[in-house]
Amino acid sequence: MVSPMNAQVTAGRLPLVVGNWKMNGTRVTNVELLAALRASGPFDAEVSVCCPFPYLADVAMSLQGSGITWGAQDCSQHEPGAYTGEVAAVMLAEFGCRHVIVGHSERRSQHAESDTLVAEKARLALAHGLTPIVCVGETLAERDDGTTEGVVKRQLSAVIHTLGHCVSQIVVAYEPIWAIGTGLTASPQQAQVVHSVLRAQLAAASTRAIEMRLLYGGSVNAGNAQELFAQPDIDGALVGGASLKAADFSAICRAASHAALGSTGKSRT
Ligand code: PEP
């Protein structure tokens, strides 16, 4: 399905679009949403759906054999044990999860998750064969203060410190907090600036940084996806609200497919 001739694939960066359902869905509406998503594929990009924990078995059943992968929105920083209410990475692996989001800004702010805790979650995810999608991003006040770069580098550096060269196995999602669920989107140029800073930071830690996928998240929709994906260091998206509507999410996946096939005209290094 993926043309071996396009530059993006050559660089090993197949676009990735991940839906973050957050705490939404019902067993009935999930089946409808996933059936519609399956019907609109296949895509020339990797597509994944991160659902609430209780729906993992249903989602796995709905997506089996579709080429669409699935994952969770968080995991514990501990191995199984006496941690009431927590879910261990090894349990997610049992349900066939490919990805797990860690360090989403809602977890960092609502559950006081620190940079080191997020790094520990990423470490356990990798230890159990999952790909952690590590979220970083600044508040509006931090952007206005001119500290965006310092904030995202601090967040990522905790992960690099913990994982060392294995950091090449993660996916990074740059999600400016002021753009999440607000309808505000970083301009493609604003997002690209941060993505290139992150890739340079990763390059200092791993020779494989050029192969790593860096996602943008923050009010991505069918209208803005293509221009975002045309940026040289934006390799896909983490999508919240629009992932709950099959038509909108499929349109974003199609935009990523076009990027994979080089129809945006970009040439990746
Ligand atoms: C998110 O939750 O990660 C997100 C980017 O949400 P939204 O697309 O709704 O802004």
Topology of this protein?
Blueprint: H1 7-10, E1 16-20, H2 27-40, E2 46-50, H3 56-63, E3 69-72, H4 89-94, E4 99-102, H5 105-110, H6 115-127, E5 131-136, H7 140-145, H8 148-163, E6 171-174, H9 188-205, E7 214-217, H10 225-229, E8 236-239, H11 246-260
Parallel strand pairs: 1-2, 1-8, 2-3, 3-4, 4-5, 5-6, 6-7, 7-8
This protein binds phosphoenolpyruvate (PEP).
Fold and architecture overview:
- 41% of the residues lie in helices and 13% in strands.
- Helix 2 runs parallel beside helix 3 (56-63), helix 2 runs parallel beside helix 11 (246-260) and helix 8 (148-163) packs parallel to helix 9 (188-205).
- It starts with 6 loop residues before the first helix and ends in a 9-residue tail after the last helix.
- It has one domain (4-264): Alpha-Beta Barrel (TIM Barrel), CATH 3.20.20.
- With 269 residues, the protein is of the alpha/beta class.
- The protein has an eight-stranded parallel beta barrel, surrounded by five helices.
- The structure holds phosphoenolpyruvate.
- Residues 20, 175, 180-181, 217-220, 238-242 line the site of phosphoenolpyruvate.
